[in-house]
């Protein structure tokens, strides 16, 4: 079972899950734990979900969404895994700073303590700025063009409402997913692009 959250690494985790399920000859499940307390529409979330659902369907996997509803994410993951008799769980984790380690209980340790008869696979997902060249293609000049209320990735500036930046296409993906770098208040900011559309608020 692959656990995915909103961000650019879900697709990579699912592909890792496909490889593992084929290796051991087991069915594949893709789980998203929804931590929101409302059913309000979220454009960024919906775009990521659409990609994950498509990948899961192509791999013959079952895609699941579970509401957290005040529970711990680790409890929801273990509950779903036990229901489907899962033996292998895949999650992604970014490198944490020492301060984060000291002030926040380690999610991996908490999950392991609750798992029974399951193996946990932790896939390292790097920060966007660190190791960008290892996860994305070389950046190219591109534009975000506003179209019907949404910003879409384009090779050329169109109309009067557009943003110039540098686009880094994510490696090993058939979709137009990646990061769009802009300069904001003198600092670099990386925006997520999902299937050619801006997935982050400006």
TrEMBL record:
EC id: 2.7.13.3
The keyword Transferase belongs to this UniProt entry's keyword annotation: yes
Enzyme kind, highest EC tier: transferase
Keyword rRNA-binding (UniProt): no
A molecular-function term among this protein's GO annotations: protein histidine kinase activity
Keyword set, alphabetical order: Kinase, Transferase
InterPro entries recorded: Histidine_kinase_KdpD, Rossmann-like_a/b/a_fold
Record protein name field: Two-component system sensor histidine kinase KdpD
